[in-house]
Design goal:
By secondary structure, this protein is an alpha+beta fold. It is 36% helix and 22% strand. The protein has a single domain, classed as 2-Layer Sandwich (Herpes Virus-1).
Length: 74
């Protein structure tokens, strides 16, 4: 049983330690908004650029592929 709980703890630690590079500012951030095409943008850059990426505050459009992505507030 302890082997299973150790594996679960290791997976949880791996998920938490993963950070993503923002495509705009190129900094490694613990959280970035991500599109399915691989584009990622940190919260700071999103706040600066939301005027051009969203018209309703519910979805944002990826500047690379044009896909609509949600902010998770529907």
């Amino acid at each position: 049983m302890t082997g299973v709980s150790e594996q679960a703890a290791q997976r949880k630690k791996q998920r938490r330690s993963r950070s993503t590079a923002c495509c705009c500012c190129r900094r490694e951030m613990p959280f970035c908004w991500q599109c399915r095409c691989g584009f990622s943008i940190c919260q700071t850059c999103m706040n600066e650029n939301v005027w051009g990426m969203s018209c309703n505050g519910i979805t944002w459009q990826c500047p690379d592929c044009g896909a609509q992505n949600g902010f998770g507030n529907q």
